[in-house]
Design brief:
Number of helices: 6
Distance between the termini: 16 Å
Largest sheet: none
Radius of gyration: 17 Å
Structural class: mainly alpha
Length: 152
């Protein structure tokens, strides 16, 4: 099983501040709670991306109805918006280190791209000739996620 890249773990430095703990606590990869936060953040981006792709494939092959596809795409939008809100609260904390802030902003950007991709899927469901946004944001979301997770 692939582990979360060390680059992604640096976001965990912000966690003690958010939890009300002393800011001097370091984020260490061997701390199970802090590592879990990083792993869950990576998992959220990665699985949301692939969920949207699976959903689009299911709709295109008539395995999923337009209603089901629309509903799940809107769920992904809502979950991504919640993630953006939560990450934004951490970014707004002035005690967050610049490197951590940059990574958090990258995560926010990736969620924004996932939202745009989901809206592109909804547009495709409404008009099967309307695929431009779907493909443009799908490529952009993958590039952002790949870069954040240090994938090849």
């Amino acid at each position: 099983m692939r582990r979360v890249p060390p680059r992604f773990i640096c976001v965990l430095v912000a966690l003690p501040v958010v939890m009300g703990l002393p800011a001097e606590l370091p984020a260490e990869e061997d701390d199970p709670a802090l590592y879990a936060v990083g792993a869950l953040g990576a998992s959220s981006l990665y699985t949301s991306y692939f969920l949207l792709g699976t959903l689009a494939d299911g709709y295109a092959t008539a395995a999923y109805t337009s209603s089901f596809t629309d509903e799940i795409a809107r769920d992904v939008i809502g979950l991504s918006e919640s993630s953006i809100e939560a990450l934004g609260r951490i970014v707004a904390d002035e005690s967050i280190a610049a490197g951590d802030r940059e990574l958090l902003q990258g995560m926010i950007h990736a969620h924004e791209l996932l939202i745009a991709q989901a809206w592109g899927l909804i547009a495709y469901v409404e008009d099967e000739d309307d695929t431009d946004d779907w493909f443009r944001y799908r490529r952009a979301a993958w590039e952002a996620i790949r870069d954040l997770l240090d994938l090849e």
